[in-house]
Amino acid sequence: MSTEVVMPQMGESITEGTIVKWLKKPGERIERDEPLFEITTDKVDTEVPAAAAGVLEQILVQEGETVAVGTVVATLGNATAGAATEASAQPKESAGHFRSSHKPKTFQRKAKAANPPPQPPPPPAAEAASAHAERGQRLSPAVISLANRHRLPMGELLSISGSGAGGRITKKDVQAYIERRPTSPPFATPLQALQAPAPPPVAASATAPLPPPQYLYRPEPDDKLIPMSGMRQQIADHMIWSQQISAQVTSFTECDMHRIARHSDEHGAHFEEAEGVPLSFTPFVAEATVRALKEFPIFNASVVGDQIALKKHVHLGIAVALEQGLIVPVIRDADEANFVGLARSIHKVAEKARRHGLVPEDVQGATFTITNPGMFGGLTGTPMIAQPQVAILGLGAIQKKPVVVDDAIAIRPIMVLALTFDHRIIDGATGFQFLERIRIRLEQFDLP
After folding, report:
1. pTM value?
2. What local confidence, expressed as pLDDT, does residue 166 receive?
3. Torsion angle in degrees (nearest 10) through CA of 352, 353, 357, 363
């Protein structure tokens, strides 16, 4: 009996993944928990292990192809009876999705309109894509996104010879075609916005056309074209959707870090010797943030239709910069950890991320995120919300500045805190109150 291998879900907002590399060939033997293939999403690049021992019968999704979570990507034969686990035959509803054990509280944000306005008809391009899909030519989101970026007309895209299963057009096919594409393509019908899934209606333009040609760059012969990695493309898509989904506003404040800086200088070496991890500024900010989240639960929430889900526990995302992009491992139940526990957890997940050792569970279910552009010298910035969260805290570089202390000028290490929040459910006053609470906790921190 064959065992199906499916595309796992790598994060709460991830609906698809890209096969980077198959580590086994059809006919080869594989043991349970042995890496079977590599995938990439905007949250993680990781190896997916086989959940059952057996022989790789058939590869259904080729390298470079992007498929939805839950899609069967391969089959295993001659597996030991009962060896298959939930990870390899998981239903689409969960598919590795992190779900906390509690039932979120919900309350109404606003009453539904008695007579909702009629929905606009789908864009003509989307109808055309659907028609082609019905005739058997299914285009993946990665293929559509790549075609849009290079303004490939519909007819030209569909004329590309596909190397995927059943003649399906893959991202590699499109990239190869673009490299040898003539300057003046023979097709005139624009592809426009073939996005999957379709974006929500926009009042100004329901069809969301591409920018006018004068705003799009045409590469010069001496330009070096570097294809975006799968992880970078996923990040790009996620950032665009984040801007479309929520009304994002950023508030700023300055925080005097002199007490924490002095404590770190005086006790950092002893802390590392005793606890086995370095004493950085991040756990101080993490603990202050977690305490503020308990006081302001609206920042530890998600929008669900016309309701707001308040989450019982804080699962803190800590952004880690890698060479190929940003990844956000998660500290589970951060609200139940003390300062030392947070310091150990933050160091552990950051090290796992840097050595590419993260597994799906490490990047799923964050309820609030902290990002630190200050480590690269950035004074401040306006971080973008990681959907479906409603806020993110950015940490700027700590710089010595002259400040007024008790009517006297003093030189203090100052850090700019930047809080981006979803203005749909959080008012500006609440945003500043939350940010101010974090600042006060940092300046008056109960030092360990």
Report:
1. 0.61
2. 62
3. 110
pLDDT, tens digit, 9 for 90 and up, residues 155-177: 678 788 887 756 778 777 888 88
R_g of the chain computed on alpha carbons: 25
CATH architecture of structural domain 247-443: 2-Layer Sandwich (3.30)
* Residue 423 is a catalytic residue: yes
252 exposed, middle or buried (CB, 10 Å; 0-12, 13-18, 19+)? Answer: middle
244 C-beta neighbours (distance < 10 Å), count: 12
Q: Which of 33, 265, 306, 427 is catalytic?
A: 427
Q: What is the per-residue pLDDT for 43?
A: 57
Between strands 72-77 and 54-59, the pairing is antiparallel
The class of domain 3-77 in CATH terms is: mainly beta
Which two structure tokens, joined as six digits, stand for 156? 């030209």
> Cα separation of 202 and 180, whole Å?
36
Instruction: Give one DSSP letter per residue of 229-280, joined into a string.
Output: PHHHHHHHHHHHHHHHHS-EEEEEEEEE-HHHHHHHHHHHHHHHHHHSS---
Which position has the token pair 């300062």?
Answer: 339
Interhelix angle 171-179/141-149, nearest 10 degrees: 20
CA-nearest of 240, 348, 271 to 13 is: 240
Query: Domain ranges in the chain?
Result: 3-77, 124-226, 247-443
Who contacts 164 (Cβ-Cβ below 8 Å, separation ≥6)? Answer: 62, 65, 170, 173
Is position 362 annotated as part of the catalytic site? Answer: no
**3-state SS, residue 330:** strand
Say if residue 197 is preceded by a cis peptide, omega within 30 of 0. yes
Nearest to 105 by CA among 303, 308, 315, 332: 308
Q: Mean pLDDT throughout 43-48?
A: 72
ω into 388 cis (within 30 of 0): yes
CB-side neighbour CA atoms (13 Å) of 8: 28
Query: Max Cα separation, the chain?
Result: 80
pLDDT reported for residue 152: 77
